[in-house]
Amino acid sequence: MKSTNIFLAAILAVIVVACNKESDTPAIPAAPSTSATTASATAKPMGNFGMALAGPFQVSLGTDSNPPVPGKPKFTAEVSKDGKPVTDAKVNLELFMPSMKMQGPKVEMKHSVDGKYEADAEIMKSDYSAKVSVESSAGKGTAEFKFTVN
To answer: What is the CATH number of the domain that holds 93?
Structure first.
């Protein structure tokens, strides 16, 4: 019985390590909304693709439509460091379509307010891998997100 438990624990450890090898940046689940008073009723949710680490930064990525639809949606990346918005970064969004082995758009995101960076990018029906690169005086890093457009 004891050897079976050790064997199962070893297999579980190998699976966990293998699953974490897919990306250099670990994903962090998006935090749920905590209160209706923190956002207006008409505000669109940000970060519908989740949150990930990019070097010393925490980055969430989303579009103005949830789920994303074909067309030219506005992508918004929220960048923070130690819980504070980063307002002086150079932020780029690069999209890939792995199933088609195609490079998608690569755009520079412009700072709008409170650590939010925005850009429009043309997308079509496909699975996507999105890389958000962030560089500022505080450091640099890249976060990766995956999403599907139906």
So the answer is: 2.60.40.1940
